[in-house]
Amino acid sequence: MQPTDRFALIAVTSQGGVVHLVSDAVIATCDAGRYVAACGATFIPAAMTEPDGTDDCPLCRARQPQLPQARGQRR
Ligand SMILES: [Zn+2]
Predict the structure, then answer these.
(1) C-alpha of residue 1 to centroid of ligand 1, in Å
(2) What is the distance in A from the centroid of ligand 1 to the CA of 72?
(3) How far apart are CA 34 and CA 13, in angstroms?
(4) Ligand 1 centroid to 53 CA: how many Å?
(5) Dist. CA 14 → ligand 1 center (Å)
(6) What pLDDT does residue 67 have?
(7) Contact between residue 45 and residue 14 where contact means Cβ atoms under 8 Å apart
């Protein structure tokens, strides 16, 4: 399933600490614990006990510039 503008995009931290945007439809149909981000990257989300990521994926960010930035990039 390809993410579209019909779905809400949610910021999800990957295991590498990068924050990607994932549509709620992709999260609802998650396959084998991997998400496909709005940028096309397939990644495994960080454990919920891990701190939020500090680096936004620039390709995902370009799709939704109005979303709050990751903590490490706020000024
Ligand atoms: Zn991304």
Answers:
(1) 16
(2) 16
(3) 12
(4) 12
(5) 9
(6) 67
(7) yes
